[in-house]
Design brief:
467 residues; alpha+beta; Beta-Lactamase; Helix Hairpins; Heat Shock Protein 90; 3 domains; five-stranded antiparallel β-sheet; 12 strands; 16% strand; rod-shaped; HATPase_dom; membrane; transmembrane; Heme sensor protein HssS; HssS/ArlS-like
Length: 467
């Protein structure tokens, strides 16, 4: 995967290379169009002035004069009629002038090698210190003819170099800024899409168009963003279903209470009928009270307000207490309660785990047919405690097992239509087990029963044990 950092490095390098190439090309164009003709004309004027002084002043020491001119920053090459040449100064690195050019100058013509010097890509011929790249003028003195070739010494041409490199640097900066502005658009565009996506999510739209095709961090972010949007959508749907289900669950007992209350108030009933209706009202009220407590428990867990108060306690003693407290329920159905629990001291929140065993046991009583049994088992392993509760009830369909821990989800219709429940008990069980960093599994077979198995890890740090 190409990282975003790598992409920025590559883009920056490409921008610098492109900017340098384009700037150099434009600088060469600037040189050939403006700077080269300007320098050619300037040097020609210098040469003509030197010629004028050389020819007009007969008393002037010619050798001294030419040497003085070379000391001022000019490279000079003088050729006589016999094609004998002499250099003044150290400027010329190569004597590459043709005989035809020398003859032309000796015959009175001006040679402009700077203007006619071949153009080269990525180079400025003006800075080549050769005789061919110079100005040649004829000089006549004392009946003799000379060809004088002159050009500025490159080491003395700071002015021209400053102009050249200033233009080059300026072009590099301008082109780089333009390229960066264009490249930034491509970098900012996906960020703008994420901004738009957040606004769509805020308005309840979850079908997002994001750059998931990218192979860098933006692409990974887009994929994770879409996953987050799907989870938010699912969470919103769950919330709406939860509110709808809670309203329905409260509406049912409220309707019963309201209806039977009116009946008791408005109709002449026997004491037996009144007692029966009042018992229903009491039962529905208790059901609503239990549901409120369960909702408060779930709310505390969701808001992380529930603090675990862990301690050591006897598991067998706690489960026997639950069995005793629920005795009237399981005895009414003539159920047999079996317990295979050795003496085990487990470490956890005693009150919350009490609710776990109670919720599962209550479910087992509901869905176990009369005359059958419920089995409690427990064992201690090296790293965890395992507690299993098995009923001999009607079982849970396989396709329903993965949803039984969802809030307000009930499979009562598939098991027993006459059994009422809030659908919150197993949700609370799962939340409490996860608070203890444990796990819960379900095994069920239609017509044979269901086993809930809880695994609680031994938290050695929390128990104060050393490895």
């Amino acid at each position: 995967m190409r990282s975003l950092y790598g992409r920025f490095v590559i883009i920056s390098a490409v921008i610098m290379v492109i900017s340098s190439i384009v700037a150099f090309l434009l600088t060469n164009i600037y040189y050939h169009v403006y700077l080269k003709p300007y320098n050619s004309e300037k040097i020609l004027n210098y040469a003509l002035y030197i010629e004028h002084l050389y020819e007009e002043d007969s008393e002037l020491n010619k050798e001294t004069y030419l040497q003085s001119i070379s000391n001022l920053g000019f490279a000079i090459y003088m050729v006589d009629e016999k094609k004998q040449g002499k250099r003044y100064g150290e400027g010329f690195k190569k004597i590459n002038i043709s005989d035809e050019a020398i003859d032309s100058v000796l015959n009175g013509n001006v040679y402009n090698g700077i203007e006619n010097y071949p153009n080269r890509l990525f180079s400025t011929g003006f800075f080549d210190n050769t005789v061919a790249n110079s100005i040649g003028i004829p000089i006549h003195t004392n009946g003799q003819h000379f060809a004088l070739f002159i050009r500025p010494d490159i080491q003395q041409q700071f002015g021209e170099l400053r102009i050249f490199y200033a233009v080059l640097l300026g072009l590099i900066i301008v082109i780089s800024l333009i390229c960066i502005a264009v490249a930034t658009r491509f970098v900012v565009r996906p960020i703008q899409k994420f901004t738009q996506a957040t606004q769509e999510i805020t308005s309840g739209k979850y079908d997002l168009v994001l750059p998931e095709y990218r192979k860098d961090e933006i692409g990974v972010l887009a994929k994770n963003f879409r996953k987050m949007a799907k989870r938010l959508q699912k969470s919103e749907q769950t919330r709406q279903e939860f509110v709808s289900n809670v309203s329905h669950e409260f509406q049912s007992p409220l309707s019963s209470i309201q209806g039977f209350s009116k009946t008791v108030k408005t109709e002449e009933l026997t004491e037996l009928e009144k007692h029966r209706y009042l018992s229903i009202i009491e039962s529905e009220s208790q059901r609503m009270s239990n549901m409120c407590k369960q909702l408060l428990t779930l709310a505390s867990i969701d808001q992380e307000e529930l603090t675990l108060r862990k301690e050591f306690f006897n598991l067998g003693k706690q489960i026997r207490s639950i069995v005793f407290m629920s005795e009237w329920e399981w005895q009414e159905k003539d159920l047999a309660i079996e317990m295979v629990i050795p003496y085990i001291e487990i470490y956890g929140d005693k009150n919350l785990l009490y609710q776990v065993w109670t919720n599962i046991f209550t479910n087992s009583i509901k869905f176990t047919e009369s005359g059958k049994s419920i089995l409690f088992e427990a064992e201690e392993n090296e790293l965890e405690w395992r507690i299993a509760i098995t009923d001999r009830g009607c079982g849970i369909p396989k396709e329903e097992i993965k949803r039984i821990f969802d809030r307000l989800y009930k499979v009562d219709s598939a098991r027993n239509r006459n059994i009422k429940g809030s659908g919150l008990g197993l949700s609370i069980v799962k939340e409490i087990i996860e608070l203890h960093e444990g796990a819960i599994t379900v095994e069920s077979e239609i017509g044979r029963g269901t086993t809930f198995t809880i695994y609680l890890p031994k938290n050695r740090e929390g128990m104060g044990l050393d490895d």
